[in-house]
């Protein structure tokens, strides 16, 4: 690829060059003219099917096809170089055009058509570009900051455009030739995607073995048009498909299934290309069986779902309800747990009559609630079990405060017998140690020490 | 009522089976169960007659034609649940005491 390297190096000094020939050498090269001559001759002769007997690599036609593939890649690179050249020259005249028209061949055609014209209403761009882009170009041209080019620069630019178009035509010829020979070179691949698309894929990849080495996701994207113009909506931009979009299989699938079909096509065509690159199946049967598989799969996707059978109800109460657990459920259950007030009201001291709501044993009994000696009339909202655990751990970290009680408790209790009673906050903590009361139901009680016998 | 029963039969086949009896052909139980209405539905679980409190006053049977399939399925399910627990009388999910007033 000497042309490429030279072209690259010279591109760096791009602003200094004046003549296209310094940059673009491919068209003048011997190799190019040789191959083009052979291609034209072969195109005129028609296909030769009689050389099936020969080993492929010795076949001069096969060699020509390999050369054609390499040449088509070279031509593409050359076109890019020429495009850069044209762009640099035309920038003085119409700088915004390069961001509006991306494709190098379209750009060359537009430049040739516009020439040195300042008023774009006199230029007819119909057929060269889509009408939306023509509109944008005309509008931008009316406000452009460019100035007309001098005559010699203009001439060079037009020459370069001609060169680019000639190269494009040459590439088309090469592709046509490869396509006509496609069923001989890569029968399996052309059985799946058709010879035109197969030729394009091979051309872009740079040869059959290069195509075979690519992963299927890359094959899917070969030839994909990228870059929407700035300001144009991306809602209409097609999904990522390349040359495969033109295959018959793709066109015949309904739009909702197209993405899946494209992936399937890319995968199978990569397999076929691999088979072809090793000449594993010269008759093309593998390709045809792949094609059958693809058709079958696409049909299966389009099948309607199986009809819904009415299901009989399950036996009631046969499946146990899924009980959930965890912290969230425990916290929710705490809201309905028995409160400390209710617990005190449920218990009674021995030998001490309880008070009741209607007095004299009538109405609801209050149990230990409000009894003298229990220390409290008002029972604060007790600590939940979780809070008790946390408080215990907090205490164990020995932060210094000993047995802090809730801030809502009042240390005053009014009792009917003794008047004001000051409650001893420590008494509650020591109720455990009394021994007269059972520790079985205590919330803050721990396990008693079990002595070894 | 027959259409309701036939359409429901497949759905509840896992826990209930429906038998259609022509009382003119099998008159043996007419006096025992007092079968005098045009349509009567009675529930039995393991050879025991299950009573349903429908609010109509007669707990032994449903002696009118139910129109709604889902209502009927609910009644059958309630009867099944209660009978499995050993209850002889279950309470129907819907009250039919006002069924003649629309």
Using the coordinates above, name the CATH class of chain B: Alpha Beta
Number of strands of chain B: 3
Instruction: Give the topology string of chain A: H per helix, E per strand.
Output: HHHHHHHHHHHHHHHHHHHEEH
How can the largest sheet of chain B be summarized?
Answer: 3 strands, mixed
* SS-based class of chain B: alpha+beta
Total DSSP helices of chain B: 3
The CATH topology of chain B turns out to be Glutaredoxin
Strand content of chain B: 5-15%
The greatest interface here is: A-B, 7 and 11 residues
Strand order of the largest sheet of chain B: 1-2-3
What profile does the largest beta sheet of chain A have?
Answer: 2 strands, antiparallel
The largest beta-sheet of chain A arranges its strands as 1-2
**Helical fraction of chain B:** 25-40%
- Sequence of secondary-structure elements of chain B: HHEEHE
């Amino acid at each position: 690829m000497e042309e490429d390297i030279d072209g690259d190096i010279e591109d760096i000094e791009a602003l200094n060059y004046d003549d296209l020939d310094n940059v673009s050498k491919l068209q003048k090269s011997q190799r190019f003219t040789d191959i083009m001559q052979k291609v034209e001759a072969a195109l005129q002769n028609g296909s030769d099917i009689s050389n099936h007997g020969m080993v492929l690599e010795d076949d001069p036609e096969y060699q020509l096809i390999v050369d054609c593939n390499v040449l088509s890649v070279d031509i593409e690179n050359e076109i890019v170089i020429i495009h850069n050249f044209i762009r640099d020259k035309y920038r003085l005249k119409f700088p915004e055009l390069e961001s509006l028209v991306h494709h190098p061949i379209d750009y060359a055609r537009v430049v040739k058509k516009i020439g040195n014209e300042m008023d774009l209403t006199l230029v007819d761009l119909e057929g060269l570009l889509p009408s939306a882009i023509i509109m944008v170009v005309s509008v931008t041209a009316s406000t452009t900051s460019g100035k007309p080019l001098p005559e010699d620069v203009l001439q060079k630019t037009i020459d370069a455009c001609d060169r680019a178009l000639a190269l494009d035509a040459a590439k088309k010829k090469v592709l046509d030739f490869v396509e006509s020979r496609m069923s001989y070179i890569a029968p399996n691949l052309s059985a799946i995607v058709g010879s035109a698309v197969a030729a394009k894929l091979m051309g872009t990849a740079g040869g059959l073995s290069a195509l075979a080495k690519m992963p299927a996701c890359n094959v899917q994207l070969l030839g994909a048009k990228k870059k929407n113009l700035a300001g144009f909506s991306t809602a209409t931009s097609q999904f990522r498909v390349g040359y495969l979009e033109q295959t018959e299989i793709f066109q015949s699938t309904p739009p909702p299934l197209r993405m899946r079909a494209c992936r399937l096509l890319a995968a199978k065509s990569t397999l076929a290309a691999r088979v072809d690159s090793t000449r594993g199946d010269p008759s093309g049967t593998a390709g045809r069986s792949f094609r059958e598989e693809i058709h079958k799969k696409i049909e299966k996707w389009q099948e309607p779902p199986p009809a819904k059978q009415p299901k009989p109800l399950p036996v009631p109460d046969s499946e146990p309800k899924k009980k959930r657990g965890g912290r969230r459920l425990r916290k929710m259950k705490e809201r309905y747990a028995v409160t400390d007030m209710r617990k005190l009201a449920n218990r009674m001291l021995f030998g001490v009559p309880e008070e009741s709501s209607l007095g004299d044993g009538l109405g609801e009994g209050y149990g230990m609630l409000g009894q003298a000696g229990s220390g409290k009339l008002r029972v604060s909202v007790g600590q939940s079990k979780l809070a008790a655990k946390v408080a215990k751990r907090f205490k164990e970290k020995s932060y210094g405060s000993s047995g802090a009680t809730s801030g809502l408790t009042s240390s005053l209790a009014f009792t009917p017998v003794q008047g004001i009673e000051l409650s001893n906050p420590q008494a509650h903590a020591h109720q455990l140690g009394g021994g007269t009361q059972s520790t079985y139901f205590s919330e803050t009680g721990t396990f008693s020490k079990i002595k070894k016998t | 009522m027959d259409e309701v029963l036939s359409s429901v039969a497949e759905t509840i086949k896992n826990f209930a089976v429906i038998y259609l009896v022509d009382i003119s052909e099998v008159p043996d139980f007419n006096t025992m169960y007092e079968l005098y209405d045009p349509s009567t539905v009675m529930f039995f679980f393991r050879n025991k007659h299950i009573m349903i409190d429908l609010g109509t006053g007669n707990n032994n049977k449903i002696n009118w034609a139910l129109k709604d399939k889902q209502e009927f399925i609910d009644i059958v399910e309630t009867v099944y649940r209660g009978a499995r627990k050993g209850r002889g009388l279950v309470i129907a999910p819907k009250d039919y005491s006002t069924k003649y007033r629309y």
